[in-house]
Write a structure and sequence with these properties.
globular; mainly alpha; Arc Repressor Mutant, subunit A; two-stranded antiparallel sheet; 6 helices; 2 strands
Length: 137
């Protein structure tokens, strides 16, 4: 890899490496990190509208919509009517709940591996920096 002082490049490289770690950990259950995260957020929110889920995940509706189509095709989510004609609710299906339960220990192993690699102090510092960067708009 070429050395760089560009923050954007360094963050993108780090993101790809971390995502690869989680994707590899979740491979046995047939999910990637983005899909697992979507399912986990659905579990936490219950039956949110697509707009609420997009906001909670920090995604735009079109990106979330594409991701939802994939997990819907896998039978992991169900759609229902929302509070009006323009909104729809989304929820974990039974299959989605089972797969999430199977993937949770794998996700946790990846979390622990990354935390161990960083150490407690660096992990805490990184979380603070990432909190700060999440608010850039």
């Amino acid at each position: 890899m070429l050395p760089t002082h560009c923050l954007c490049t360094k963050l993108r490289r780090a993101s790809r490496g971390v995502t690869r770690l989680y994707d590899d950990a979740l491979a046995p259950v047939g999910l990637n990190a983005a899909q697992f995260s979507l399912l986990r957020n659905l579990q936490r929110l219950g039956k949110p509208s697509i707009t609420t889920l997009a906001e909670a995940m920090g995604l735009d509706r079109s990106t979330l919509g594409r991701n939802l189509k994939v997990v819907q095709g896998m039978g992991l989510v169900d759609f229902g009517e929302g509070s009006d004609q323009r909104s729809r609710q989304v929820a974990l299906s039974e299959a989605g709940q089972r797969l999430l339960e199977q993937g949770a220990p794998l996700w946790e192993q990846a979390q622990q591996a990354l935390a161990k690699r960083l150490g407690a102090d660096k992990r805490a510092q990184l979380m603070l920096l990432l909190d700060d960067l999440e608010t850039i708009d």
